Structures are given as structure tokens and as C-alpha cells.
Amino acid sequence: MVREGILYGGALAAGGVAVSWLAGPSWGAPLYLLALLCLYFFRDPERSIPDGAVVVSPADGKVVAIRPAQPHHTRVSIFLNLFDVHVNRAPISGVITEVRYQPGRFLVASREEASEENEQNTVTIRGADTTVVFKQIAGLIARRIVFTKKPGDRVWAGERVGLIKFGSRVDVILGPEWVLTVREGDRVLAGSSVLARRREAAVSLLSAEATSPQPLQPEWAR
Length: 222
Hints:
The protein is of the alpha+beta class. The protein has two domains: 39 residues; 154 residues, Distorted Sandwich (Glucose Permease (Domain IIA)), CATH 2.70.70.10. It is built from four helices and 14 strands. It is elongated.
């Protein structure tokens, strides 16, 4: 459970007790319900982190776009609805080299233009012979981005690094050394779903599949 969830949920529950005492239990019920919703929203389940040269998803949600980004780069966009876990995790192990905040609009986070126009926090992680960038992007309801690390900090793939409150979007920018294992429409889990594999690792995996006596589907088709 994220600390904010306990604080918000406790405050709403306390308000429900006060309203129930002053006006009756039925008047306090909506506050109790909101307290439960806060506890649910700020849940923080444990995740099994995969090994190997992979990029894990930094957020729970649905892959809504896969687009070319900078020259030879690819952007994977993940939309988080109100019912997704909103804790963000590091996509790779490495050192944070830059954290850059950009003020902006609060468009619906599932829209394509939200990637550039919305308020966002851009984080650059330098790993082993690779750099991965991910953006915490605020949405129509989400108005606060939390990031708990700073430049110079070392993080591990799947490590908790922040959250975006109440519906949002996370973009991941990958270089040509990565081969995607997801496609638009896939549901992903922060810290445990693999978004991409290093190209040499992906080639090795495909070679192993080619020599297997049983035909195997691509990872995204399983």
C-alpha cells in the first residue's frame, strides 16, 4: 500500500465517522466508500521481476500506441485507467542521468497528443550499453506526478520509482538495440511484463525456437 493511500483513506474514513455521528450512518456511507476506493487505487502489489536483457513495463495498463520516435527509436505508450495500479517502476537497471519536468496541458491521457502536450516528467536511465527514457504523463484527472529518485541514483529493473495519481499515461522510448515483444492492445503489468529484449538476446531466443522440435508462437501471441 502506498503511503498516500493510507493518508487519504484514513482522512476519508475519519470524515465518515464524524458525519455519521453528527447526521447518521447513511450520511457517512459515501465517505466510507471513497476511503475504500482510495485504498484500492493506491494498492502496491509485489511483482515477479524477469531476469535477462529485457525492458520491463514501468506501469500497469494497456499499450495504446507504438510509434517511431527520434531517429531509429520507438515509443511505446501505456494508458493507465482509474482501476490500474499507479505505482511506476524502473524499466531497466542503471543510473538515472536526467529527470526533467515539463509543465503542460491535462488532455485525456489516452489521446496521442498527450505524449507531447500534457504535463510530464521525463526520466533517462543509462544502463549497460543502452539508454532508456520513460515519461510519466499526467491525464485529465491525474494532476500530480510523484518521482522518488534523483539524477545519480542507481535503480534496478522493476524497482519502485514513483506514481501518477488518478489516471495517466507512461511512454517508453527505446533505441534500435531493442526488439519489441508487445503490440498495441496488450495489457501489461509494471515490473513483470517484458516490453522488449536486447536484439542479440532476441536473436538467440529465435534461434532456439527454430531448432526446437515443437513450433513456438512469438511471445506476444501466446
